[in-house]
Amino acid sequence: MAKRSRTWITVPELLEELDITRRTWQRWRALGKTPPCTVLPNRKLRIRRVDFENWLSGLEERAA
Asked: To which H or E segment does residue 5 belong?
């Protein structure tokens, strides 16, 4: 079970990790600026941890 919780993260977990509000997340999602999400049958979102980490890496500024 622990492995499953590391593989997928919930939106509240992501919000906490990024220290952003749900409204900010919703705005970013509407603009297509979030990592890919999976919509479960109960309409809750899950994000693969690897997709989240890759998305974060892609946001890093590179030294000129």
From this structure: helix 2-7
pTM score, two decimals? 0.80
Question: How far apart are the C-alpha atoms of 25 and 3, rounded to whole Å?
Answer: 25
Q: Tell me, what amino acid is at 16?
A: E
pLDDT tens column, 14-64: 999 999 999 999 999 999 999 999 999 999 999 999 999 999 999 888 766
Q: What share of the chain is helix, strand, coil (3-state, %, to 5)?
A: 55, 15, 35
Q: What are the Cα distances from residue 44, in Å, to 39, 62, 64?
A: 6, 34, 40
